[in-house]
Amino acid sequence: MIEIIPATDIIDGRCVRLTQGDYTRKKTYCDDPLEAALRFEEAGIRRLHMVDLDGAKAAEPRNLRVLERIAARTSLEVQYGGGIKSREALEEVFNAGAGRAICGSIAVRQPELPAAWIAEFGAGRIILGADIRDGKVAIQGWTETAGITAEELIGRFRRDGLTQAICTDIARDGMLCGVAVEFYARLQRQFPEVEITVSGGIGTMADIEALRSEGLRSVIVGKALYEGRITLKEIERCLQNG
């Protein structure tokens, strides 16, 4: 079974989607992300992927109130990313109700911090975010490119006990063009002890099935869900059938 995780990207408290990580190509889908979260929960979804896009730019969480409302009103486990640059910010995110925290830019710039957080909070609560553009990791809300690959970044934290990594294909993100199945399958085979969560390009349930058949364990679905390419009924059937 592959876990399907809806994406809720937040700007100014609203649920939006960007195209290829471009802040100027933004579309608002829901003024209140809690409404979407309640629909996801009703369909049997267990986990929500929340990215604070304001926080990613500001280098500190900016939409914790949205997280607090969803955590208080649903049973969804929220994995939250965007602006987590310090232990203080990490604690704020956990205190606001996140079950897991995503470390992206900080993992490149100060890798000793996420390594320490894995040791302190447990590998089950810390997710490595590896956003890829042209084969290299992008940081700071996808506005800068670092000279390191996803494989190198994941490998750097494997010895620290890393068990979860989200890998986003920025070129495909929001494009509904299909997913790079071979890339993700190769990455999962290279790091069998790490749950590689696929993100970017999902357009149909067939894309999800292709990933499942290659042994991927989780996938983030965003624009395809909000635009009806994938329906909650389809996801519900998928979850029921295992």
Q: Overview of this structure, please?
A:
- This protein is of the alpha/beta class and about 240 residues long.
- It has a single domain, classed as Aldolase class I (TIM Barrel).
- Helix content is about 40%, strand content about 30%.
- It contains 11 helices and 12 strands.
- It has helices at about 35-40, 55-60, 65-75, 85-95, 105-110, 110-120, 150-160, 180-190, 205-215, 225, 230-240, and strands spanning about 5-10, 15-20, 20-30, 45-50, 75-80, 100-105, 125-135, 135-140, 145, 165-170, 195-200, 220.
- Strand 5 (about 75-80), helix 4 and strand 6 (about 100-105) form a beta-alpha-beta unit.
- The model has no long low-confidence stretch (mean pLDDT about 95).
Short account of what is shown:
The chain has helices spanning 33-42, 53-58, 64-73, 87-95, 105-109, 112-121, 150-158, 181-190, 205-213, 223-226, 232-241, and strands at 3-11, 14-19, 22-30, 47-52, 77-81, 100-103, 126-133, 136-139, 144-145, 164-169, 195-199, 218-221.
